[in-house]
Amino acid sequence: MADLKGNLRKALDNSDLSLYYQPQVNLQQDTLSGCEALVRWNHAQLGWIRPDVFIPVAEQSDLIDNLTYWSINVALREWLQFCGKAPPKAIAINLSAKLLQSPEVVDLVTRAMNIWGADPGTLVLEVTESAMMSDPQVALHTLFALHEMGITLSIDDFGTGYSSLAYLKKLPVDELKIDKSFVHQMAENKQDRKIVQTIIDLAHNLDMSVVAEGIENRQILDMLVGMGCDYGQGFYIGRPMAMADLPAWEKKSSWKNPEVIPA
Ligand code: C2E
Ligand code: CA
Ligand code: CA
Q1: Which CATH number characterizes residue 95's domain?
Q2: pTM here?
Q3: Tag placement on the chain: N or C end, fewer CB within 10 Å?
């Protein structure tokens, strides 16, 4: 662990990390709605190290602050470059639980948006339920400040944490992201299907939009369209990829840019 921490510190200093982008699509309109930025670490000796291995290590030290500011800056720069002159679509970035407890995060996000000239309306911050619950008062304060700036807030892995509905209704949250553990087997598992429909209805009843992650085949995608789910993400649509590969994916995919669809 100590070794991984030291290596990660070096990786941040030497820019050995990169971001991959996974497409998110509007399921009801068949268009690309944005991407989620996911960090990648290709270690010279150890090879690819999974984020669910090194993010917890970063969270147990001060490294998570640097990693997050690095990811917000890189994501905004690369994403705005990718969007070019077209109106930028949404870029979703994962905000670690720990940062929600630090009020400076608001200044740091503001600074990054100013540097890259990003419109807050294009930025989505994904936060897990457990992140909000560890110190709800501080988290709530940070979330309100970010929301007031016009940033979209999304609850990641929804359904796997412990947040109560009483708490959920107080949150300035715009989107629920259904955890992939409910989506994976929804074709065979009636209970999962019911849970997914319940989350879709809950989101809509609370005036939120809803994203399903972990869509791995056409059958599940079609089911989600029929169930009224707004957005989707998963290997069937597109795997997380380097920014350089995104234009080729977009060209051959059936999810088009709203701007380039012929009238
Ligand atoms: P997450 O935010 O829930 O990200 C979704 C994960 O599901 C990603 O794994 C993605 O590659 C994977 N995934 C996407 N579609 C499918 C699918 O159809 N099937 C399956 N089986 N998996 C799918 P990844 O990239 O390994 O990230 C794992 C976790 O690491 C993320 O979970 C997130 O919690 C964390 N993470 C990743 N990047 C960052 C980051 O920049 N900052 C922070 N704080 N956390 C990050
Ligand atoms: Ca996420
Ligand atoms: Ca998730």
Answers
A1: 3.20.20.450
A2: 0.95
A3: C
> Is the Cβ atom of 159 under 6 angstroms away from ligand 1?
no
113: containing domain: 2-244
CB contact set of 21 (below 8 Å; sequence gap of 6+): 35, 36, 37, 38, 78, 79, 240, 241, 242, 243, 246
Q: Is the CB of 232 under 6 A from ligand 1?
A: no
CA 38 – ligand 1 centroid, Å:
6
Q: Does the C-beta of 157 come closer than 6 Å to ligand 1?
A: yes
**Could you tell me how far CA 239 lies from the centroid of its own chain?**
14
Question: Does residue 260 lie in a domain region?
Answer: no
Q: What is the mean pLDDT, run by run of 10 residues, along the chain of 263 residues?
A: 84 90 96 96 91 93 91 96 90 91 90 95 92 80 95 94 81 95 96 97 96 97 98 97 95 73 45
